[in-house]
Request: fold
Amino acid sequence: MGHSTPPPRPDIHATKPVPVWHPARWIGGAALLLFVFLFVRLLVLNENLQWHVVAAYLFSPEILAGLGRTLLLTFLAMVFGLAIGVVLAIMRLSSNPVFQSASWLWIWFFRGVPPLVQLVFWYNLALLIPTVSLGIPFGPQLWSGSTNLLITPFSAAIL
Reply:
């Protein structure tokens, strides 16, 4: 038996791949662009939309004030949510079983209760607790206030 040498391998770096041309992709893309163009044209040139009326309502002071309040609520809710989330994450990573259990219970409760139900609960908290007070247990009361003054609709939305 003789030894034969294997044939030389082709140099893969010398060959250049030829990209495959997909005409269906180009036709589909062109059709989609045409559809988007026609839809935008329909919206812009349609006299039934009465864009001057839309602009009058869209940029009215009440709408812009509501937009500002919405952005403020969003920012505050994100800041408070981030702060509470960091504290809960640290509690979950703690070796203390009480901290782990408390953070698990908090997360379980607030994930399980829909946000609209939470909003109704926080807004109506004064029905359950008419006044909130701070003081020394079985001792003097240092501060007391109405729950309605503490939990306003704005703060209920943040919570």
About this structure: Residues 24-59 form one domain. Residues 61-93 form the longest helix (33 residues). Strands lie at 131-135, 141-146.
